[in-house]
Write a structure and sequence with these properties.
mainly beta; Jelly Rolls; Immunoglobulin-like; 6-stranded mixed β-sheet; 38 strands; disordered N terminus; neurogenesis; secreted
Length: 558
């Protein structure tokens, strides 16, 4: 209430007496105790400010009371009270000291739990209830009084401690809360595998005060929220610290570690990571159509739109809606044939599975995977049951047993954002192997003490099988090392190299694996220069296997 009003210059006990004198003469013995109780309750209530949103904290099962006074001298003085529960359902009532016999009131938005006491009812008590409500919806009461009156608001939470906001105003010309259209529903106009398109009717406040109003969308996988403070309370209770009006203040420095803020095309998106799922807030200015991206296929989402006054941070909620994204289409399946090698390129950005299918013609089969680039996850199922699941590196064999006509499904997926590629072969266990017998390690070792200004000495492991080894070298710069090692195609053979890079080819093996090691000194190099060395191993089938590249620098001074 405005401090200039006469009522607030009176002491509280005189204010009580002034309001009560209109309807009370001398209390009788039977009503004396009730009078004292009512006066005690009013005295221990708090004053509710006019024209200001008040946050009230409620303790479980403990009622809390506030009061306000309508000034004298105004005919049919109007007032409005809006209560917003921020968590669980609450009970609240408006009570009035009957300073006047003529009281008019109405509740324009109400649920079945809302009750309005007809003015024709005359209660013997000094205080009468003119309105009560139970629920968690935002509820507004509008009333008028023809004479000065003392009103009391009583709030109660029976489920747990909570908080609410209360807004009282006697000024009908202004609006703290943005207005909702006559039809406040959100329409779902499009559904995809990872997107949902929404549209809603413009708020009259947006059309009148475009620069101070914006729409904010909140989506989650649990349920709709009836107010913005209810949504923020739910986010906090899930284990995250969400600063009040975070999406409205647009303050990046308020973000918590569990939050991610994305600003693009004048849209602010705040993603809250919680164990119970993801809550996303998107503020898109005054656009009343929005396509929500980056959703998960075959998932139900709940969408709420709030129209927000940026000057006051007050908001009004549209009627929430929900939609289920479409199921992800079945990936195309490529048939594998005995002994045939195929190379698969996997898109790291889309993170989709590439599927291969094989129907066994033998009881024993072997899958061979050669990783060419990146990182790949392999998932093999037999008749729907998993038989292998791992991330592969280099060359990997899976020997499996089953029955004739068993169906094997191989799913490949890049585990990196960049593209990956892999070669795949399936064959009977007794089939001629595609790749040569491999040594224990494919690493190339260099000897620092044997380096000179124009030569380096390298070594690598061999096998018990006589095989051909070819050595290649390439001169590189310091800033090329990471790119060369990162982008190397481990499936490519010497045919992709320039002839000038070839150093030599040699055959060797040793029955004793402890002695199956060979060394080679490469001469004719430049001093203080970086070189990239590669060794290719060729088996009986002629398919090469590339050792891990090695970078060595010759000495600058000798």
């Amino acid at each position: 209430l405005k401090m200039s009003r006469f009522w607030f210059y009176l002491p509280l006990h005189l204010l009580m007496a002034a309001c009560l004198c209109h309807s009370i003469k001398a209390p009788t013995t039977s009503s004396q105790q009730s009078f004292k109780t009512d006066l005690f309750n009013f005295y221990h209530s708090l004053i509710l400010a006019d024209g200001k949103e008040t946050t009230i904290h409620l303790l479980k099962d403990i009622p809390k009371r506030y009061y306000f006074v309508l000034e004298e001298g105004r005919a049919l003085a109007p007032f409005t009270i809006t209560v917003t529960p921020c968590d669980v359902p609450i009970e609240w009532s408006i009570l009035v000291h009957k300073a006047s016999a003529s009281f008019l009131g109405k509740a324009p938005r109400g649920d079945h739990d809302t009750q309005e006491v007809p003015k024709s009812q005359k209660a013997p008590s000094m205080v009468s209830t003119i309105f009560n409500y139970k629920g968690n919806s935002v509820e507004t009461y509008m009333g008028m009084s023809s004479h000065s009156a003392l009103y009391m608001l009583e709030f109660l939470s029976t489920e747990r401690d909570t908080h609410i906001t209360v807004y009282l105003t006697t000024d009908t010309s202004g609006h703290l809360y943005p207005e909702l259209p006559n039809d406040p529903r959100i329409d779902v106009t499009g559904i995809g595998h990872t997107t949902v398109t929404l549209t809603w009717k413009h708020s009259p406040s947006v059309l009148q005060h475009r620069e101070n109003i914006q729409y904010c969308l909140l989506l989650n996988e649990k349920h709709n929220y009836k107010s913005l403070c209810a949504a923020e309370t739910a986010i906090r209770s899930s284990g995250m610290k969400l600063p009040p009006t975070l999406a409205l203040s647009l303050s990046p420095y308020l973000l918590e570690p569990q939050q991610v803020m994305i600003l693009s095309n004048s849209e602010l998106s705040i993603i809250n990571k919680a164990s119970s799922g993801e809550v996303r807030q998107i503020c898109m200015g005054t656009k009343n159509t929005y396509t929500v991206p980056n959703l998960s296929p075959s998932t139900q989402y709940y969408f709420d739109v709030f129209v927000v006054n940026l000057l006051t941070n007050a908001s009004a909620a549209y009627t929430g809606t929900f939609a289920r994204t479409l199921e992800e289409p079945e990936p195309k399946v490529t048939e594998l044939k005995d002994g045939k090698v195929i190379q698969v390129v996997l898109d790291g950005k889309k993170q989709k599975f590439y599927s291969l299918q094989y129907q066994a013609r033998h009881k024993k089969i072997q899958f061979t995977f050669q990783l060419c680039r990146g990182q790949v996850r392999v998932h093999i199922t037999k008749n729907g049951k998993t038989v292998a699941l791992e991330n592969i590196s280099g060359l990997r064999y899976f020997s499996l047993k089953g029955k004739l006509l068993d169906t094997y499904l191989v799913q490949l997926k890049s585990t990196e954002e960049s593209n990956s590629s892999v070669k795949v072969q399936v064959s009977p266990h007794f089939h001629k192997l595609l790749f040569p017998l491999l040594p224990e390690s494919l690493k190339i070792k260099s000897f620092s003490k044997l380096r000179t200004c124009n030569s380096v000495t390298i070594a690598w492991l061999g096998t018990q099988e006589e095989s051909k080894y070819c050595v290649y070298k390439k001169r590189i710069e310091e800033d090329q090392v990471w790119r060369e090692l990162r982008n190397v195609d481990r499936c490519s053979g010497p045919e992709s190299r320039h002839k000038s890079e070839k150093v030599l080819c040699k055959y060797f093996y040793d029955i004793n694996l402890q002695r199956a090691v060979t060394t080679e000194t490469i001469k004719g190099l430049d001093a203080g220069t970086l070189y990239l060395f590669d060794v290719y191993l060729f088996g009986p089938s002629g398919t090469p296997v590339r050792y891990h590249s090695k970078v060595v620098k010759t000495r600058k001074k000798c």
